[in-house]
Amino acid sequence: MSPEEILTGLYDETLVGNGPKVLELTHTGLEQGLTPERMLFDALIPSLEEVGARFERGDFFVPEMLIAGKAMAGALEILRPLLAETGAATVGTFLMGTVKGDVHDIGKNLVNIMLEGAGFHVIDLGVQVSPEKFVEAIREHRPDIVGFSAFLTTTMPMFKANINALNKAGLRDQVIVMVGGAPVTQEYADAVGADGYAADASAAVKRAKELIQRRRALAASAP
């Protein structure tokens, strides 16, 4: 197989969630000298972005998103240590969790996969994460960004509760806060005092990178 055929295969098989084939093609690509970065950025991430686009159009549903995400996660298991070996710099640390009262994690898990693929170190606290647990994890891991995910309108007020907890703990200035989830809007993110919002997984990666770059530029220019 040519490199182009491998990349096309990776894209197509990730799209349909064929995990075993994605693993096979990942190994074949490495054997033939394809770099982990190329497989990630030319095939796997674009495929997952297409999955997201199809979901938004109503062509794909949650099961399709899940199996595609799972297929890509399998490839990442192989590629992640190799990316570390090649000195692919970690963009930053992203601490993520679904807020207290909410057990939905599909969107969060897709964002995590995209973030890892883009070079972030992701710490996932899971679902039903209380403000106290977020505070504790921020103290322990010192992330660049903390992400609050909510799928229900009834759990969205936890964003404000979490931010209040960070303020009380004296951590608010030390971490960038991003929020997201199906019912969340930019207006709501602004209202609760978050630093960033993204409507989908690919936008989340882009926004996270922008926010980290901006913070680092401000820190570098500070007297």
TrEMBL record:
SMART domains: B12-binding_2 (SM01018). CDD domains: corrinoid_protein_B12-BD. GO terms for molecular function: cobalamin binding; metal ion binding; methionine synthase activity. The keyword Plastid does not apply. The keyword Plastid does not apply. Pfam families: B12-binding, B12-binding_2. Residues 1-91 form the B12-binding N-terminal domain. This is Corrinoid protein.
